[in-house]
């Protein structure tokens, strides 16, 4: 199989994105995805069960197959911004607003008290957008505290659902997926494309 390179973040229409799914069967216009990345490489035989994985994926193969799926979406829909990557949306939100970074860190510390992240809350708030994005996905940083990665982030169907003109956020039932809920919450409330419609988020 030929190597498929991840596309650069598309030049997208900066206007706010309204939610509208009037029926179960409708033409696809845009899709939010997460292509497996460094967080998936941190799944090991020792932590896979805690991370809800039955087996270890071959990350390179999984990434190629996912990028192929994304290219199919782009080809069929024919728009440069058909596929929106969560990692890009999260970085955009962190770069757009300091409040987005603070909200993420505060929600993270409050939701996962057993990980003792509150001990480094101030340090996390001072992270650059890039460093905080990396920590959000991998749990890795230069700080002495480590968090688990979020390999299940690729299952974006679990994060939220659009019903007519509202978006309903799910809430993770397991600690392993709690950070995913925080990530999508921050994107929908702070990213310039979605923040104007934050009143439609349930």
Describe the structure in brief.
The protein has 202 residues and is mainly alpha-helical. The protein has helices spanning 38-41, 59-77, 86-96, 98-111, 121-125, 129-138, 178-190, and strands spanning 31-33, 83-85, 160-163, 166-169.
Structure, described:
- With 202 residues, the chain is mainly α.
- It has one domain (31-200).
- It has seven helices and four strands.
- It has helices at 38-41, 59-77, 86-96, 98-111, 121-125, 129-138, 178-190; strands at 31-33, 83-85, 160-163, 166-169.
- A two-stranded parallel ribbon has the order 1-2. The protein has a two-stranded antiparallel sheet with strand order 3-4.
- Strand 3 (160-163) and strand 4 (166-169) form a beta hairpin.
- The termini are far apart.
- The mean pLDDT is 91.
Shape: globular
Strand tally is 4
Strand order of the largest sheet: 1-2
Protein structure class: mainly alpha
Number of domains: 1
Relative strand content: 5-15%
Order of helices and strands: EHHEHHHHEEH
Overall radius of gyration: 17 Å
Whole-number average pLDDT?
Answer: 91
Largest sheet: 2 strands, parallel
Low-confidence stretches: none
The helix tally amounts to 7
Q: Helix content range of the residues, please?
A: 25-40%
| Cα end-to-end separation | 42 Å
């Amino acid at each position: 199989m030929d190597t498929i390179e991840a596309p650069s973040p598309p030049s997208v229409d900066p206007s706010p994105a309204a939610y509208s799914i009037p029926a179960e069967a409708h033409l696809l216009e845009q899709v939010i995805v997460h292509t497996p990345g460094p967080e998936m490489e941190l799944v090991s035989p020792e932590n896979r069960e805690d991370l809800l994985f039955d087996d270890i994926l071959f990350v390179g193969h999984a990434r190629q197959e996912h990028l192929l799926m994304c290219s199919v979406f782009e080809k069929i829909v024919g728009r440069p911004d058909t596929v929106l990557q969560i990692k890009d949306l999260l970085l955009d939100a962190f770069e757009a607003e300091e409040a987005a970074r603070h909200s993420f860190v505060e929600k993270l510390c409050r939701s996962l008290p057993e990980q003792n992240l509150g001990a480094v809350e101030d340090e996390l708030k001072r992270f650059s957008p890039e460093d905080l994005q990396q920590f959000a996905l991998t749990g890795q940083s230069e700080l002495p505290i480590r968090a688990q990665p979020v390999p299940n982030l690729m299952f974006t169907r679990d994060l939220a659902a659009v019903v007519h003109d509202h978006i309903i956020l799910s809430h993770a039932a397991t600690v392993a997926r709690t950070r995913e809920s925080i990530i999508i919450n921050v994107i929908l409330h702070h990213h310039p494309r979605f923040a104007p419609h934050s009143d439609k988020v349930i």
